[in-house]
Cilia- and flagella-associated protein 410 (Tichodroma muraria), 222 residues
Amino acid sequence: ISICRDLPNIEVITFSVNGISDLEPLHRCQNLSELYLRRNNITSLDELFYLKTLPRLRVLWLAENPCCGPDPHRYRMTVLRNLPSLQKLDNQAVTEEELSQALVDGVEITAPPARRSVENGWSGSTASSAAGSTTEPESELLSCSLEETNKTQEELDMKPVPRDKYSSFSPQETDCSHKKRNNVLNAILLLMKELDAEGLEIIQQTVVRRLQAFQKRELQEE
């Protein structure tokens, strides 16, 4: 997710089911208002340190990460103590009573998490997560991916992706292929929000050429 360091104006990010363990690249996204990180490999709530500098963050989905731990109350209180501007956490509205209680039951995070040694650009926790993330059930992975891709498209006033077209992978493709295509699609859609009219015209011309090339190839194969 290092690309986020170069997207200071991005407002909505959906990174669920991606094996992410490090949130440091997000600290420059000063316009970020919604962040979806469900089912990743975030092992420590100390990662919230990088989100405390985001003044507009109002929606966070962090559930189903190792950092949530066995005590849901302590987890929620700690998140709200460090991110008191949140209006919704894990798809549940934040109340004034919770924010007051968080000052008592939550743990304040004042320093970034300690990092493990990194070799070849991968930490041990990230590598193991990337290997394990490919075991997600196909139907569940597609459901999550389709939901979040459609949310991104709604932000861009685009039509949602039909399920039959979205899941039209060949039987030989793995879950990893599903995730890769979804990640690329989400990245493109989010980056489009950063472009002006001239940039969008270039994208349109490139897409037309690519589609023509695909159609020509299909005709040749027939």
